[in-house]
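User: Assemble these into one structure.

Assistant: Restating your components, then the assembled model:
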Amino acid sequence: DIQMTQSPSTLSASVGDRVTITCRASQSISSWLAWYQQKPGKAPKLLIYKASSLESGVPSRFSGSGSGTEFTLTISSLQPDDFATYYCQQYNSYWRTFGQGTKVEIK
Amino acid sequence: QVQLQESGPGLVKPSQTLSLTCTVSGGSISSGDYYWSWIRQPPGKGLEWIGYIYYSGSTYYNPSLKSRVTISVDTSKNQFSLKLSSVTAADTAVYYCARDRQPGGYSEMDVWGQGTTVTVSS
């Protein structure tokens, strides 16, 4: 299986901060990567697909980049609604796998 | 707008079979435009993809669960279902159904159900 490793596991930040989350794949996945946001008690919400495509309706402060084995999710100016857990997920193989998650907390 | 809703027992005894159904509204499973997935999340932990199905009945399962998982589809009811056999406490989780935006396996999941909690306990 393709292992996905996110860093950091937890991130403390303030409103207005620029935030970057990294996701590394154990082998090349081309650009077959998605990012999801999950709030407590809620289902994950798709933010980014194909590594850098912004899902419709998602604020433009969210952006994704990378290809191959290293990817980043950037929030350009953190808003109160953005405090949540973020997951990357590869779909390069039929066996989809997720990163372990990055919790973005209020500093 | 497509919506997904999971349903099924919230409590299952160890060694029994967990059975859940996902009802799709606002769109047809038979359109052939999407794959339909199951994902789970143990309490306080991350997400695990279980498997997916196409309207034709073709499936692909997470190899780590394959021996215990069956996903089926009922196009007449616009539903797809999950069965997980020989459950243990480790199968306690929130179970989500979701839609793959593209058929063929290389797809993000763009629509999710709200999730249903299943506890395995005697």
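DSSP finds no helices and eleven strands in chain B.
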